[in-house]
# Entry
Amino acid sequence: MVGLLVHFFVFRNQDRRRTGMTKTPLAERLTGIIGPAVSTLGVELWGVEFASAGNRMVVRVYIDAPGGAAESCAPAAADVDADVDANVEANAETGADDAALHERPLGVTIATCAQVSRHLGTVLEAEDAVPGAYVLEVSSPGLERRFFAPEQLPAYLGRIVDVRLHQAQDTRRHFRGLLAESGPDFLVVDESGVLTRVLWPHVKTAHLVHEFPGAAA
# Structure
């Protein structure tokens, strides 16, 4: 996945917590804060996930253009010590301001990601939303976007998806094939005519598989 990664470093004298799950009270709280915050800049929240980098939590925020028309963003970075000030400076030559975001015709651009990172850095610090030290990354979903909720699936019916489960189903935890069907709590993967129905709560990760022109499916 190619995307703008804007890093926002926060250091506090609190216990550090880590989580790799997205369906947690913290994830739900951040989604409730971040969704409305990014919508004011003309983009949509695609998802929030957690990882770890050394002894810090990484909060990854994926943003998309309305209707899912995101472009891939080139790399950039922004650093902040939240105990000093709340300003976020992106190390990218964007030359963008708030108005420029609403003037863009389509897609999530470098300027979009950089501006959203500045805004979120300020919002999350004001809300004191994340306990302990953390790194905030803002990116477009990229060519092989991860799915965070079943309602994101219908737009990608007929596309190739990669699905991994928490526990084995029919002796398997990994399925890769066409997304044949989706519903409020399930999806169906078509592997060369063999259909497998998977319940969404059983899904550990699911992401789109980019099909390069001329490549075999």
Remarks:
- The first helix runs from residue 25 to 39.
